Amino acid sequence: MQKKEQTLKELRYLRERALISPGSRDKVDLLGMTTSEVATLVHDLETHRVELELQNEELRRYQEELTTMRDQYAELYNFAPVGYVTTGKKGIIIQANLTFGEMLAFPPGGLVEEFFHSYIFKEDQDIYYKHRKQVLATGKKQCCELRLIPRKGEPFWARIESSTEDGPNSKEERIRSTLSDITELHDYRNHLKQLVEEKT
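The chain above was modelled as a monomer; its predicted structure follows.
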């Protein structure tokens, strides 16, 4: 008898929480329900429990898919054939991929919170300053070529393509850039230029 009363109390609580609308606080007289009505209520609650389990399973599957996509993105970002770098106010590096770190001979994460212009050849810093200013003013992709100075090794020529994350005149001043080493291309251009000058 006590077990039956306990079951009815649990059913009353579940019925009030799961089947009564949140705005309604009317009591349901479960004791006055017939055996058939109680059986129907138990069936409804069991169906609701199964639906919740299915939803939880679906959420777990979505979480696994998101984790896989995040890992794939991280791999594509870090091991891309070009350098990726995000800078904030005053050109401070917020994020950089492994390729960009290798370009400047830095370990992973070693460039974060450094000033990007610190690694630009002195004579080319005006180029970067104008490039950055134009990107922030227009919000559109801009390109420039300048020399970068790695922590170890000789300066090299790089092509930079940049755009803002938040559109023109954003207070955040976050700029995403891709960098490609074009030293060989630059040397080849100079070689062709010399050949033309010699022939003329």
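The longest helix spans residues 35-78.
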